[in-house]
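We modelled the chain as a single entity of 498 amino acids. Its sequence is:
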Amino acid sequence: MGTVSEQLVAEFLSEYRSSGGYLRGHVARLAELAASEDEQVAEPATRSVFTSLVEQLADSFEPGAVNVYNRAFAQVIQACRRNPGAAPLDDNLERFGLQSEEDLIARAETLRRVSPLPLTHEWAQRMRRVIVLSRVTLGADVAITSVIIERMKQSFPEAEIVLVGGRKASELFGGDRRLQFKEITYRRAGTTMQRLLSWIGLLKAVRDLTRELGHAEYLIVDPDTRLTQLGLLPITGEGDSSEGGPLLRPDHLFFPSREYGSSTTRSLSELTSTWLDEVLSAKMTTYPQACLNGGDLQSASRVVQAIRRSRSGPIVTLNFGVGETPAKRIGDEFEQSLVSTLIRHGTTVILDKGAGQEEIERADRVIAAATQIELDGRHARVVEMREQNLTSQPDKLDAELVVWDGRIGMLAALIGQSDLYVGYDSAGQHIAAALGVPCIDVFAGFSSARMLERWRPTGKAETRVVAVETLTGDVSTNAVLSRVLSDASEMLSRATSL
């Protein structure tokens, strides 16, 4: 039957989808549970709020769902700010003059209008700092945020570009000399209250970055980030009278990613580029980018060169991570069969071991199955690599399966050295596309056709999406495997012939 909070969300969404009705009492009860000081109550309710409600509305990519989100999450914020532990949240919202749900909704509505900036040569030259907010998840930062960063570099050649977000972002973009980083923490696994209080850290970071700058000397770009709860929480404004005195509202860009281009089938990366064309009044196709650290690039190059000195076949990097969304996964049989078949056909497989105990255990099962493969009277060879043994790699690496157990930056560098990337819908396919590596995105667990279109990896190299409807019926593992292997064969034949 599910938890009380899951039932509340299911009934709320059912009413909205069938009649357009808004069950305010259901949101009130859900918000009450999510705002509880008892974490055993708040945590499952938080999962329902963010995974079952917010993500379901966002993944429809429809303007009507944005209306419902703004209304429902404003109600959640109001419930949370009454909690005794939410004084910083309430105080800062008061300073912005945001006292009611209606205030929050009205402010968020103003961000949905896309208007061109008065971008002049003189203003571009005066710009000293552009502050770009992270989308929190790495895949979205590559697909969306990196496009914004690239365009800001072009439009404001004299400005410092600062990415505000988590530590891992520097592993994907740290090789960019134009880019600086301001680290803040957003607790993706925290309670609703803990996630909302992350906004206080964002406000401090923005104030630190703008304190000595004049009104026309900085620009803030919000790519529809969870840091501002999709635009409901402000960053700066004339009503802010916090430390340092009132902050004049700067030109502030908000990318309405859940509704922009709603009548099109374009990817989020393509829509981000088009939106930038509109707001900057300059047409320039901009692709996702990943600019990796030099140390990771060198280490990955040594590993792959050692493989190529020993083996003549293609190199394919795989990642079977799905985060906290099991519906994105096909299953053990698919993963083990894919690795085994690739190895039997002379491919060297680089497998990312993943993050978290569950992903590691699944990878261990794939590794165990691979070691049972017989090749010319011997078992397939497996080499596991970790950070501590990267510097001691031999000149030759004769193994059918190379397992990476470590940081995302090194995984990205290995992807960049590969002939092909294959993985579930996560960060890996966006990294591959940004690095110009052909990729196959095994996209399962999508809740709408529009979600499939929006999150399609976009780059200059060939990308293919294998759509698997895990939410609507039984999945034929053999059919998915056959499709992936067929696509891989075609793409590798082209990639290795260049």
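As a brief sanity check on the tokenised model: Residues 238-249 have pLDDT under 50 and may be disordered. The longest helix spans residues 39-58.
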